[in-house]
Specification:
Elements: H1 12-31, H2 35-38, H3 51-68
Helix pairs in contact: 1-3
Length: 69
């Protein structure tokens, strides 16, 4: 079986920080995507199809929720 005894030594603040940084990784990845890749296969270039806006919105929501709870 897996041994997770080491995780009991991590305090709550550090664990929360690790989770928040983990949520920021997809946001940083989405910011590096090229505009041509984001809109590939789309019939138009409407603003609501921009992945950067959606990932920023979802990341902010997740960061707020996980930082409170």
């Amino acid at each position: 079986m897996l041994n997770f005894d080491w995780i009991s030594h991590i305090d709550v603040g550090s664990a929360r920080l690790i989770v928040l940084i983990t949520f920021l990784l997809p946001f940083v990845f989405a910011l590096t995507l090229k505009k041509s890749y984001i809109y590939s296969g789309a019939a138009d270039n409407n603003i609501w199809r921009n992945l950067k806006i959606w990932i920023a919105l979802l990341t902010i929501i997740m960061l707020v929720v996980y930082s409170i709870f």
